[in-house]
Amino acid sequence: MTPPQLADTASYQLPQPESYAALTQLLARRELELAAARRMSEVFSQQIKLQDLVEQSLRIALDVVNAENGSVLLADTDKRILVFYHSIGEKPVPSGTEVPWDEGIAGSVYRTGRPEIVPDAQADHRHFKKVDETTGAVTHDMITIPLKRWEGDPIGVIQVMNKRGGEFLDRDDLAILTIISALATVAIEHTSLVEAAKLAEVAQMMGDIAHDIKNLLMPVVCGAGILQTEINELLDHLPDSELTRAKASRELCTEVIQMLQEDAHRIQDRVGEIADAVKGLNTPLDFCACEVADIVSSVFRSLGILAQEKHVRLITENLGLLPLIVADQRRLYNVFFNLINNAIPEVPAGGSVTVCGQPPTSEGTIVVSVIDTGRGMPPDIRDRLFTKRVISTKPGGTGLGSKIVKDVVDAHGGTIWVESELGAGTKIHIRLPHAPPASIRS
To answer: Which of these, 342, 210, 212, lies nearest to 274 by C-alpha position?
Structure first.
């Protein structure tokens, strides 16, 4: 085989200055791409949670293209929506904000699986301006890329907006972001699988724990019944002169024993709900006509001693104005128990927790608010409270209580939202239909 001939040095031409500039620009871009890939690989090597992985991936994307704002939206295939999972910038989009996936530039990119560069979002008719209105931000130039591997369907999108320095996001930025999005997708899918495997293991353990707790509580339930019988027989044999004085004791004992029996059954139900929440399952709701005032009154009876110890007043307002609703009474009890039980420790002595009903509207819904005079929440905790990104900040907390509350409200076709500021207390509002939609009841 004849080796290739070397070029004639006499006829060799040096690259033109324009070629040098293009080569330098190409090398600079390759260096950025390699740096981005290296930083992403460093993220992979860490054993971090999904939300931390998403945040770090987004920060890398903003850094390498020098953009001001960015968001990661993940798809909820059941609801056909894109959910803001994490957002970075001076005016970030609140976590959990939902947008229909058949609207907006993000929805278009998600459906087609093709990235887009938008030089002027305000002039693009697809731009979902409600997000800008919510945050008070103004989106100018934008790149939206599907979160997908080089092959496969998207799991969401990543958006970066507003390049700094008076420049505009371009194809070079798109090339770098494509690498980041593909690597981030692999990492997200891997992390999700690992977390799912952990949840499956926890779910198995929860099943065993629920069975053990049920067995442990049976003696309490049976013993309370026996105690009630013994007290009744004892008091029935008292002479007439002692009956009047014993009447108050009988009523008190009956009330306490009834509370013990009810709470023992509720503990069994609660453990089952926690197991379902971990597994991602929902047992069918048991709908019946019920009054919110009665449910809240039961919660107050269970938490009354705790409130007294903390010197916190439990108050109801306007609950009598609310109409009967069709709901799962046991599940709603757990909702209000969770919210009130979480509020009491946050309220200083002398403060209050109020459950307030708003006058019915013509919309066929009611609104009930749990209002406390506690220390309030910082914005990051408030914004993710009833989202998939909820994290408990309490020692030993899991965040499952908030998930259970959100699941129950969703299962009734309702909505829940939060108002809170540090030092100004917290208001949690729940909107419920008078009767759930037929699709939920069937």
So the answer is: 210
The arrangement of strands across the sheet holding 116-118 comes to: 98-100, 81-88, 67-76, 156-163, 142-147, 116-118
Domain boundaries, the chain: 17-197, 287-442
pLDDT reading at 198 higher than 70: no
Q: For the segment 85-113, what is each residue's pLDDT rounded down to a tens digit?
A: 888 888 888 877 888 888 889 999 999 98
For 28, 98, 139, 142, the CA distances from 106, given in Å and listed in that order, are 29, 12, 13, 10
- Which residue from 247, 409, 395 is spatially nearest to 325, judged by alpha carbons? 409
Question: Are residues 87 and 55 in contact, defined by beta-carbon separation less than 8 angstroms?
Answer: no
CATH classification code of 17-197: 3.30.450.40
Q: Which fold has domain 287-442?
A: Heat Shock Protein 90 (3.30.565)
pLDDT tens-place string over residues 365-414:
999 999 999 988 888 777 778 766 544 445 444 456 787 788 889 889 89
Report yes or no: 366 and 432 within 8 Å, Cβ to Cβ: yes
